Fold these 2 entries.
Entry 1:
Amino acid sequence: MGKSKELVLVLVLAALVSGSASAASESRRVIESEGDVYRRNLLANGLGNTPPMGWNSWNHFNCIIDEKIIRETADAVVSTGLAKLGYEYINIDDCWAEISRDDKGNLVPKKSTFPSGIKALADYVHSKGLKLGIYSDAGYFTCSKKMPGSLGHEEHDAKTFASWGIDYLKYDNCNNGGSKPTVRYPVMTRALMNAGRPIFFSLCEWGDLHPALWGAKLGNSWRTTNDIADTWDSMVSRADMNEVYADYAKPGGWNDPDMLEVGNGGMTKNEYIVHFSIWAISKAPLLIGCDVRNMTKETMEIIGNKEVIDVNQDPLGVQAKKVRMEGDIEIWAGPLSDYKTAVLLLNRGSSSRYPITALWEDIGIPPKTVVEARDLWEHKTLITQFVGNITATVDPHASKMYVLTPVA
Ligand code: GAL
């Protein structure tokens, strides 16, 4: 029996015992309508219980993509061990289709780059135990203007995607004729619901109309920012913009500060560790954006850090917040299941090392609680146990990340 049903039963029994059948039906009505509200506020495709993990072509390849890259990427995601760590979606971004639909109104995979078609690619990706994602736009053309968008063709395209075996749709916002995303996106939501296949729906309107406020009814994730670039400033500013909406993330619907740049070469190792740590603790989609066929050992160490991935995939699904900011120093924290807490000590400055202290009162741990601290990048449980606070010295443009577990 589900928890809410148990609660209804308890309330109904309590009301009956106290002799009031009408109070019982009143209690039931209240609880059931809360349940209805909850259901109505989540997209009913059952996907995204934890943030999605996978790869997307855009950050590294832009428009220069073809079916060979997609197939080889699927191979590499399996052979490197990334698939075992939970990376499952192989997502094709913009530029996969011909500029014109066929005479039946179908989107047509670009003959020169995707000659075997998308269905064959989906079959291949599925045969490796992975899932295939695709991209379209809630406008007349996609952002590259190199292929059509789905505005006015939502039902048709959703059916096409389902018939190809697509598992994830990223839906962009360019060339939309000036109407609001809150008008255009629901049409694709409904179309996907009717398409006969569960398809993760990723809203990409760049945070323009505060999609955190309405996205959970329409999709499984929503971009909160415009595009990331492979630089420290771009990365931390996306993290900041996304953090504001922390309260809106929950299982089934996630804030999306854009895809990962780890491995694309524009940041230092420590900066990429900060990038991956913030995305993980923020319950952001972990969509790799580098060429996984040719990545370095260092890149694999970062995106393959299972302990950090576990924070991202924790079933509680609560996005961390900045709980203290002082000059260059920031502390991010969020609860995990089993009374654990994830903490990130971040030095945003570019020159000095600082000791950074997280106080229990800031990070939501009862004052006298003794905890064990696991350093997620050193892969070590610290010998000392902590009560009241934890301190570490952090290099410029670097961070320390811990999971704190109460000691019984
Ligand atoms: C942007 C989107 C990017 C990428 C690009 C493709 O609007 O934010 O992530 O999809 O379009 O043209």
Note: The longest strand covers residues 398-406.
Entry 2:
Amino acid sequence: MVKYGKFVALITVAVVAVAAFALVGCSQPAATTPAPTTTSTAAPAADLKLVTPGQLTAGSDTTFPPFESIVGGVAQGFDVDLLTAIAKEAGITKVVFSSEIFDSLIPTLKAGGKFDVIASGMTIKPERKLEIDFTDPYFDSNQSVAMKTGGTYTAPADLKGKKVGVQSGTTGASWAVENLKPAGATVIQFKDTASCFAALQAGNVDAVINDLPVTAEYVKDPSKGLIMAAQIPTGEQYGFGVSKDNPALLKALNDGLAKVRASGEYDTIYTKYFGTAPSK
Ligand code: GLN
């Protein structure tokens, strides 16, 4: 009996040893093999710092179709649909657009308390990146010259002695001041794009410098008597603007944008507003 008892004890030790070896053997590769690459999950919406909890509030110059405009009291456009799709990926089901003057967007975002994100066809520029963060680019754009039907433009000298309307604080305004002012044009600043085009129609300015896709939208209606006289390749990219104090929101929006691109929803929204899928 004593012998038998010892035998059982030995076997038990051996089994435990094998089991322990097996455990170590199993756990080691798991510890050294990198985790499978999955897209990182955004922080739950409840953890995001938002002006109104559970809701994404966007500051926007809503006179900028087809990116943002107010139709029947409701914000609509490419930026509205894209931001709504991105927010959904981040677990936020409500997106509200607050109409602002373009020039005021960055200072108001920095001051905090009014909106969480700038969604306003805003070009990512080094000077702006000193003030706020931008998401990854979501749209490629250029500048353009709009004139009354019959007008022509080939070079800045064509606007010598003429009045050129721009929207204050925009890349179009900077381009006009840098390129048309030295050529002898008078650059007149307006508060929004709609005012620029109204002035062009009224004959108060001879040309408008503005983002190409928006000018294309404004001149679409032939009854306005306006044309896009020239395209100006500036190679701009739009990004959504986020406060430097809110890196979690920036990450949630970037993760959401990547998912919306990967799922094909980006292409669907693009096609809705521009007729064809984006060129890659
Ligand atoms: N893309 C231009 C800019 O960022 C114009 C934007 C706008 O007028 N909404 O300056």
Note: The two ends are 81 Å apart (CA to CA).
